[in-house]
């Protein structure tokens, strides 16, 4: 079970869980990118992917309750429906193309957009497209979810470009991430889940809980402007992580 890991290795795993949980609790996304960038130094890619998805899902479940009164089915629905359709295509692309090239491309995009969002006085607001545009973003997010668990990146950016307040934005992309990740786990977990991964998941519950609580407290203190800057900073960090 866990006897194969040294205390130093377990410490790195706990650190990744804590940092990922703070990011997820504070912004509602970025757990996979934050935690996986640390875990890949001590865990194999398959175990890292399963642990990242499962932990991120737990984080979404733990922090979504305060958002439920703000969740509107008619707004989040188009994202989720098309996102579920996009997952199989993402998995198919993962098996047919060079995933490293796609990650570098996504990382470059996130870094560029994040820097722009950090430096620009304000982001442009896109009001056109309606639910069709939302559905397209959800579909593309589903593809990225199937490729590597990055389902929340594009919907998060899109909610910022829509100009939605921080609560309304999280009430869209956080339920979306939750549903897409559960669907992804249902596909990937059947193949790759083992007893050691389950034991690791149980072992990191404490840092997940502490990090999630700290992140949510941080989120509660942010005004709208600072929330958008935090999102932008996380996008830059996520992008650089993917490129490197």
TrEMBL record:
Keyword Transport: yes
Stated name of the protein: Probable membrane transporter protein
GO cellular-component term (any): plasma membrane
UniProt family annotation: Belongs to the 4-toluene sulfonate uptake permease (TSUP) (TC 2.A.102) family.
Main localisation: membrane
Localization: Cell membrane
Membrane protein topology class: Multi-pass membrane protein
Organism taxonomic ancestry: Bacteria, Pseudomonadati, Pseudomonadota, Alphaproteobacteria, Hyphomicrobiales
InterPro entries, A to Z: TM_pro_TauE-like, TSUP
Transmembrane annotation, as ranges: 12-36, 75-94, 101-119, 139-159, 171-192, 198-219
Record keywords: Cell membrane, Membrane, Transmembrane, Transmembrane helix, Transport
Lineage: superkingdom: Bacteria
